[in-house]
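Exercise 7b. Backbone tokens:
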């Protein structure tokens, strides 16, 4: 209520409450931004030499093609807020036209919707993770793509894939995973894991402050 009434610029919660208890009141009171179809989330994955944006790894279990497109657009906007030039990879187990099946078709349709609705965005899909990040693989699989081999925003086809991938990269590659950063709400609200460390809480507070400043330059308290 303080955030909704303008008495606070953002909220961080979840160290002692479930994700549902943090997010549900936000849906009911703060609500979604105009134009946002759903509320989704990203993790900012801080690697040694760069920051990557992973979405959605925390909120939507099995998004439709339309919702996946919305997640991609929101994730690109979040990337820009944090100084990451968005090059969007719509991930699948197939790259380009090589595969078929309902899951691939969903990603293909979502990619088309992003291109149609936001033609200024750099987006590729369906694309496999290796083709999205590795220039040599990209040269073989999608040589003419401006995203392949240099993607910065990774949109996972479902929560199962996204949640496991961010945790695998966090634990195996030593990445710092900051998030989940919620997007699509009218005002900044972010969730913590109940296993959050002090550093995790500090990082999320800083992220929330940056979001507040981005949405309202006067909001700096």
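Sequence design result:
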């Amino acid at each position: 209520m303080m955030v909704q009434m303008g008495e606070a610029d953002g909220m961080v919660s979840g160290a002692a409450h479930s994700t549902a208890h943090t997010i549900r009141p936000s849906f009911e009171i703060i609500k979604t931004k105009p134009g946002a179809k759903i509320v989704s989330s990203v993790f900012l994955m801080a690697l040694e030499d760069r920051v990557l944006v992973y979405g959605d790894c925390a909120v939507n279990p099995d998004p439709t093609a339309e919702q996946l497109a919305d997640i991609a657009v929101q994730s690109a906007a979040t990337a820009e807020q944090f100084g990451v030039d968005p090059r969007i990879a719509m991930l699948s187990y197939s790259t380009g036209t090589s595969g078929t099946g309902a899951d691939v078709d969903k990603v293909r349709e979502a990619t088309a919707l992003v291109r149609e609705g936001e033609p200024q965005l750099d987006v590729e899909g369906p694309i496999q993770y290796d083709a999205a990040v590795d220039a040599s693989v990209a040269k073989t699989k999608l040589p003419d793509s401006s995203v392949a081999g240099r993607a910065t925003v990774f949109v996972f086809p479902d929560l199962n894939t996204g949640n496991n991938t961010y945790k695998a990269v966090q634990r195996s590659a030593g990445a710092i995973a900051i998030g989940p950063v919620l997007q699509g709400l009218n005002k900044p609200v972010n969730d913590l894991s109940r296993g959050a460390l002090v550093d995790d809480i500090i990082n999320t507070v800083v992220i929330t402050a940056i979001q507040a400043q981005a949405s309202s330059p006067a909001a700096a308290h």
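Instructor comment: The longest strand covers residues 176-183. The longest helix spans residues 198-215.
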